[in-house]
Amino acid sequence: MNRFFHVTERGSSIRTEIGAGLTTFMAMAYILMVNAGMFAELDGVTYGAVYIATAISAVIGTVCIGLLANLPLAQAPGMGLNAFFVYTACMTFGLSYANALVLVLFDGIIFVLLTVTGLRKVIFDAIPAAVKMSISAGIGIFIAFLGLQNAGIVVDDGATLVNLRSFNLLGGNVTWADIFPALVTLLGLFAIGIMAKKKVKGAVMWGILGSAVLYYAIGLITVPGFYAAAIAPNLSSDFLGAFKDFANLSFGKVFTEGFDFSAYIAAHGTFDFVVMFITTMLAFCMVDMFDTLGTLYGACSAGNMLEDGEIPNVNRAMLSDAIATCCGSVMGTSTVTTFVEASSGVAEGGRTGLSAMSTAAFFFIAMFLSPVAQLIPTYACAAALIYVGVLMIGGVKDVDWSDPATAVPAFMTIVMMPLTYNISYGIAFGLLSYIVIKLFTGKVKEIHVGTWVIGILFTVMFFVSR
User: Fold this and answer.
1) Which of 56, 70, 423, 436 keeps 20 to 30 A from 374, CA to CA?
2) If DSSP codes are grouped into helix, strand and coil, which group holds residue 154?
3) Considering the entire predicted model, what is its pTM?
4) Cα 131 to Cα 186: distance, rounded to the nearest angstrom
5) CA-CA distance, 146 to 80, in Å (whole number)?
6) Nearby residues of 189 by Cβ (< 8 Å), 6 or more positions away
7) In sequence order, what DSSP letters do the residues of 247-293 get, joined into one string?
8) Are 448 and 169 in contact, with CB atoms under 8 Å apart?
């Protein structure tokens, strides 16, 4: 292991690498529960099936980046991309679960081709810097919005569209059973923030587990009939049930049912389908690419691993991401990407792919704990979703807010994602506002050819197909 991964050469040790791998796993283990809970909202798939799909995808992706790129990073179905899959591709556009998996598969295939041919840089350069920096922040706010909704903190309002739920126990409008889950979410969020400030390893995961314990303790003590309503339905004597669901509902679904788009075409027409397919797949690919590059650079920079300012083995790392995404679509989950939480393992001294192999081993073990994970309530995972939003918003600090040509595209990218419930719409508005401002301020030569092409595709989506 020492010779293969160059552990000593990079100033590390096998013990340090394994410990760093455990730290990374602790920091990102929440994805197993959050991803499964998000996908469970779709028809034709269960929590257990996606839990197993998430774990297997994480193992494959993390092993790939460890063996191919020899980097101490880890991969799993990405936050933001899973929300895009569930709430945009499926719930907004009306694609089936299997149909949306096809988009993920094509995302992975295109990512492979872009990486192998070097065209990745062309696409990357076509997106304005302000939009690149804002995509992560927009997705973060979108995810936090989902968490607030799932917790019942933000509710639908006929007059203002959204509003804060009522906590008025004294006025008799709500009961304790109605509001205590939302309070658990808020306490969980505060606890995660406190632990993160104190640099507690696995703060998000501990926040989820602590919130779950608090939710059940309060419910059992203070809410009549809580056991029958909230606990009994989640208990299962069939330990292998999740694996059975995975085999029957998720694995290979992309091939057996995914390519049948007849229902969508019948409802929207062939032209609408073609434009939707191209723009949505492009949005998947762009978010995946920027997320991966940003995470790779940030983690390697934090560990002083950059070589002449460049990410070591960057093409192999990107190829690992693409391969994992293709495998993830076959498993039945959304785009697999490199996790920024892997930086915690780098901070613990991880410097080689051995750290990644350690993380993958812990994900493999966790795969067999789905019956326990299924007991984690939505309100506990909601705290993690809100905190992930906090983590993702930091990129906007580098936006030049004093320049309208930069500020407007960045702002539109950010706000249109949560306000339209659609990540691709945010990217579209950011790109189109950039093109229009440059065009009418005499800076047309600064618009990349690729930016024009992508902008035209999004324009067609708005005015012709949607």
Assistant:
1) 423
2) strand
3) 0.81
4) 31
5) 11
6) 207, 383, 386, 387
7) IIIITTHHHHTTT--HHHHHHH-HHHHHHHHHHHHHHHHHHHHHHHH
8) no
Cα three-residue angle 312-317-319, rounded to 5 degrees: 140
Alpha helices in 69-119 (DSSP H): 81-83, 97-117
350: which residues sit within 8 A by CB, 6+ positions away?
Answer: 12, 16, 17, 20, 21, 23, 24, 72, 303
Q: Which residues of 59-84 are buried (b: 16+ CB within 10 A; e: fewer)?
A: bbbbbbbbbbbbbbbbbbbbbbbbbb
For the record, the structure tokens of 157 come out as: 């309002």
Count the Cβ atoms, other than its own, within 10 Å of residue 316: 17
Query: Distance between CA atoms of 42 and 346, rounded to whole angstroms?
Result: 36
Parallel, antiparallel, or unpaired for β 154-157 and 336-338? unpaired
- Give the H or E element holding residue 156: strand 154-157
User: Which amino acid, residue 365?
Assistant: I
8 Å CB contact between 270 and 464: no
> How is residue 348 written in tokens?
């613990």
Which positions ≥6 away from 148 have C-beta within 8 Å? 154, 382, 386
**Could you give the C-alpha distances from 437 to 62, 275, 359, 446, in angstroms and in order?**
42, 25, 46, 11
**Residue 462 per-residue DSSP state:** I
- pLDDT tens digits in sequence order for the chain, 466 residues long: 888 999 998 888 999 999 989 988 988 888 999 999 999 999 989 999 999 999 999 999 999 999 999 999 999 998 888 988 999 899 988 999 999 999 999 999 988 888 888 777 677 677 888 888 888 888 889 889 988 998 999 998 888 889 999 898 887 788 999 999 999 999 999 999 999 999 887 888 899 999 999 999 999 999 998 988 888 777 765 668 889 999 999 999 999 999 999 999 998 889 889 988 888 888 888 778 777 776 776 677 766 777 776 778 888 988 999 999 999 999 999 999 988 778 778 877 888 999 999 999 999 999 998 888 888 888 998 998 898 888 888 878 889 999 999 999 999 999 998 998 877 788 889 999 999 999 999 999 999 888 898 888 888 877 765 5
